[in-house]
């Protein structure tokens, strides 16, 4: 019996060591970014652009090195609708990105100027690690996404180049839609009202600094709206 207990303990140690070895070792900056993913945030987004979402998250977590992978075809104009209160950032990102087939990874590359950055990608399976790293790694060292892409190419379906072209077309369409909405008074009023509601929620929760930042954004970006007038009034109250 004692031999079985010792053998079981040894096996558990071996398995744990193997799992740890499977994940790449983080640089200090990458480790710091992963710690930020554990910090809690409160969000209330309704058709908000991904670019605005990133900026809002940066106001909640100091020094958050989050970036949109524009070179990889991710548009900052993608609309996000999601709400959560006092949830870890990684849980919020998971919930938001599932609906939009987005992913994210922390770049861990010593000496790289972008080391530690949290990149938002269009690879929906990525959660903290690049496809092919850590938990996403397959037995042969290939990612699941790579295998799926290879299978599609073999069947004659759209491969890398066509997929990239589709992403570029979608990004261009998102930008055109965003530009169009910026010229529409009704759309501006609607967007400003959503932001005002969010700012009011922040103020009620005692998050005055964030609420004021939101109100100032409304006044600057939507100066001709009724929501901007209400934002000025609320800002005066918060300044007292």
Number of strands: 6
- The side-by-side strand order for the widest beta sheet comes to 2-5-4-6
Q: Spans of 5+ residues with little confidence (pLDDT < 50)?
A: 136-159
Distance between the termini: 73 Å
Number of domains: 2
**How much is the average pLDDT?**
77
Taking all Cα atoms into account, the compactness measure Rg is 22 Å
How does the overall form come out from the CA principal axes? globular
Global structural class? alpha/beta
Tell me what the structure shows.
The chain contains 9 helices and 6 strands. It has 2 domains: 134 residues; 55 residues. The strands form 2 sheets. A 4-stranded mixed β-sheet has the order 2-5-4-6. A two-stranded antiparallel sheet has the order 1-3. The chain is an alpha/beta fold and 240 residues long.
What's the quick description here?
This protein has 240 residues and is α/β, with parallel strands linked by helices.
Provide key terms for this protein.
14% strand; 2 domains; two-stranded antiparallel sheet; four-stranded mixed sheet; alpha/beta; globular; 240 residues
What does the secondary structure layout of this molecule look like, with pairings?
Blueprint: H1 2-22, H2 28-36, E1 40-49, H3 50-60, E2 66-68, E3 79-88, H4 89-98, E4 103-106, E5 118-121, E6 127-128, H5 144-154, H6 160-182, H7 185-204, H8 208-221, H9 226-239
Parallel strand pairs: 2-5, 4-6
Antiparallel strand pairs: 1-3, 4-5
Helix pairs in contact: 7-8, 7-9, 8-9
């Amino acid at each position: 019996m004692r031999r079985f207990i010792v053998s079981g303990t040894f096996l558990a140690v071996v398995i744990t060591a193997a799992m740890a070895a499977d994940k790449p070792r983080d640089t200090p900056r990458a480790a710091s970014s992963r710690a930020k993913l554990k910090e809690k945030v409160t969000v209330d987004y309704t058709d908000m652009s991904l670019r605005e979402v990133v900026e809002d998250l940066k106001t909640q977590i100091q020094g958050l090195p989050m970036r949109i992978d524009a070179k990889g075809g991710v548009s900052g104009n993608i609309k996000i609708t999601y709400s959560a209160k006092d949830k870890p950032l990684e849980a919020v990102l998971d919930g938001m990105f599932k609906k939009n087939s987005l992913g994210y990874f922390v770049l861990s590359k010593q000496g790289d100027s972008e080391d530690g950055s949290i990149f938002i990608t269009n690879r929906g399976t990525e959660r903290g690690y690049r496809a092919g790293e850590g938990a996403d790694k397959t037995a042969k060292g290939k990612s699941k996404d790579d295998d799926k892409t290879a299978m599609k190419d073999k069947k004659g379906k759209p491969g890398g180049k066509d997929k990239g072209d589709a992403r570029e077309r979608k990004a261009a369409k998102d930008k055109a839609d965003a530009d169009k909405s910026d010229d529409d008074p009704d759309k501006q009023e609607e967007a400003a009202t959503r932001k005002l509601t969010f700012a009011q929620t922040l103020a009620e929760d005692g998050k005055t600094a964030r609420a004021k930042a939101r109100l100032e954004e409304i006044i600057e970006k939507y100066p001709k709206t009724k929501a901007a007038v209400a934002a000025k009034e609320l800002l005066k109250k918060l300044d007292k």
